[in-house]
Amino acid sequence: MQKADNFRTDHIWCVVPVFNNKETVKNVALQCRRLLQHIVVVDDGSTDTDVSALFLGSDITVLKHQKNQGKGKAILTALQYIKSQGGHFMITIDADGQHYPRDIEKFIPLLEDNYTSVLVGCRKFNSENIPGKSRFGRKLANFWLRIETGLSIDDCQSGFRCYPVEYISRIALSGFGYDFETEVLARAAWAGLGLKAISVDVWYPQPQKRISNFRPVVDNFRISCMHARLVGRRLLPWPCHRLIADTKDYFKPNILRHPIKALKALLKENATPAGLAVSAGVGIFLAVLPLLSVHTLVIIYVTTRLHLNKVMAVSIQNLCMPPFVPVVCIEIGHFMRYGRWLTDVSLRVVFGQLPDRVFEWLLGSLIVAPIMAVTVGIIVFYSARSLQKRSVDYASS
Length: 397
Known about the structure:
By secondary structure, the protein is of the alpha/beta class. 50% of the residues lie in helices and 10% in strands. The chain has a seven-stranded mixed beta sheet with strand order 3-2-1-4-6-5-7, with helices on both faces. Helix 10 packs antiparallel against helix 11.
């Protein structure tokens, strides 16, 4: 898509996916229509009302799924329709009234210079009735996005977004529910698209009046599975297909020519308490495994791919130096195989039966590694948070 000389708002489409929000969807869509010419409401199998009937007499387009297929599928249905109509940008807004349609005006001026970016409406969590689980979920989702892409967005769970139609339609996506919004940001970043934040207002009703289609168990499980898939893909050595050429300057100080600058850059990588905790946990987990002679190389590779703090991960592995941790793993692995402890730890038993001992080390490490990783990660998190708080208090005193 070539950048237009005269930016036109008739190329901007607004999408309102809806499932059983009859009380709010009409007002949301009509307010959006005051700002944009093209509005698409996607009825994702609603059973509470005939969504099409709500918009009789208006020029708002209603697309319908015969049965509920998920928010992500509704957005993809709209995406294909908008592409067929020649639309360039797709703004999505939730049908429950959480977002204010007037904030669409904040997106429009930015589109001409960000036609290869996904714009995310970051909600101001300073209003009343914000659920505690929403605050926690937002922080957790932001953290995982940073792991998967190396990019930081204040509110990657927000459904108020603007997508460049041509590029998003060329990205293979598998998430059809709420996991779609997790996946699309990560894969868009891998494809070379930018992620830009826009501050928007948000409204939450009182808990007893709140209507949500989010299923805590099922949808959180799907989102967790999606994060696992994205992290797994990130760990693979081959690059993702890019739609946008990588023209950014990723200059990093050369460690031989500028060792001090290079060290400072490494120390600042993902140096939040949570980032350091995960880095430490990953370093410990890999250090416990029987990766003979290549522990450090594997740790550097994994932390590089996941944008973790390499210095923390490489340094913390010293806690797992032989012989204590390997012996514990071998003992546990031997007990798992034979139901008894290995009492003869002579050189003949260890090195003469090395394949058996390595296998037992592997078995035992599957128990020891996660326990140590979680324990060390928690210790590092609270230690780093305490030090960070002390630094802030000292600076303000």
